[in-house]
Amino acid sequence: MVVAAVLALPVLTVLMIVEHECSHTVAAWLAGDPTARFVLVEQTATDSCTGCNLYDSARIGPGANAIVNAAGVIGTQLLAWGSLLALRARPPLLLRVLLLELLGITVLGDLVFQVVQGFEAGVPVREPVGEGLGYTDASAVVSFAAQATGLPIPLVAAALLALVALDLLALAVATTRVLRRARARSGRVATVRA
Predict the structure, then answer these.
(1) Residue 111: what are its φ and ψ, rounded to 5°?
(2) Per DSSP, which regions of the chain are E strands?
(3) CA-based nearest residue to 68, from 101, 25, 11, 113
(4) Long-range contacts of the stretch 61-66 (C-beta < 8 A, 24+)
(5) Helix/strand/coil for 58
(6) How many CB atoms are located within 10 Å of the residue 88 CB?
(7) Tens digits of residue pLDDT in 119-134
(8) Angle at 152 between CA 151 and CA 158, to 5 degrees
(9) Which of 155, 141, 148, 143 is nearest to 111 (CA)?
(10) Is 39 helix (H, G, I), strand (E, B) or coil?
(11) For 2-57, how does the pLDDT look when each residue is reduced to its tens digit (9 = 90+)?
């Protein structure tokens, strides 16, 4: 089982990246850019990317751009919450381990990573817009949301961090409850069998 869990990590990571980028792309389509697409890996003479949403940010306004850039993490958080719901159904042990791995990858490998990466990059007052530009999700969400609302960047950033903290707290509480119930059930089963 340990070998299967270790071998599943790259597959689950690719699943998370595909979900993340597809979420960006669908949001861009819905916002009005029918040219939006995603690539898993792209190498050009001047740049490379792994998991990239390619859309024309000039076709849509700042509010829609904020939503498009937030959609990736929203999509992976839906995957995280879906994993928790599946865990509540008491799946077999290997599937439980895989669901917990997927939950960890979506939370640490995407939500936390995106926020850290975004704030390390800094938040520009105005993101450039155009076709095929790459954005760091968290900083683009803050920048575009500030442009759309007229609110100061620090206030928008604080609101985004508060939302992330609430999501992390809710996920932690829900995961703890699911794992406690599973442990209590396994304890009752062991007692009944003895």
Answers:
(1) -55, -55
(2) 37-43, 48-54
(3) 25
(4) 61/148, 62/144, 62/145, 62/147, 62/148, 63/144, 63/145, 63/148, 63/149, 64/31, 64/32, 65/31, 65/127, 65/129, 65/140, 65/144, 66/140, 66/141, 66/144, 66/145, 66/148
(5) helix
(6) 12
(7) 777 788 888 898 877 7
(8) 100
(9) 141
(10) strand
(11) 787 788 888 988 888 899 999 999 999 999 999 999 888 888 777 777 778 889 99
Task: Give, as one character, the DSSP assignment of residue 178.
Answer: H
Tokens standing for residue 108: 């640490």
Domain ranges of the chain: 2-187
CA distance 71 to 143: 15
Residue with tokens 């992976």: 76
Tokens of 176: 């703890």
Looking at residue 46, what DSSP letter applies?
A: S
Give the Å distances, CA to CA, from 34 to 54, 62, 141.
Answer: 11, 17, 21
Q: Is the pTM of this model over 0.90?
A: no
- Classify strands 37-43 and 48-54 as parallel, antiparallel or unpaired: antiparallel
Query: How buried is residue 56: exposed, middle or buried, by Cβ count under 10 Å (0-12/13-18/19+)?
Result: middle
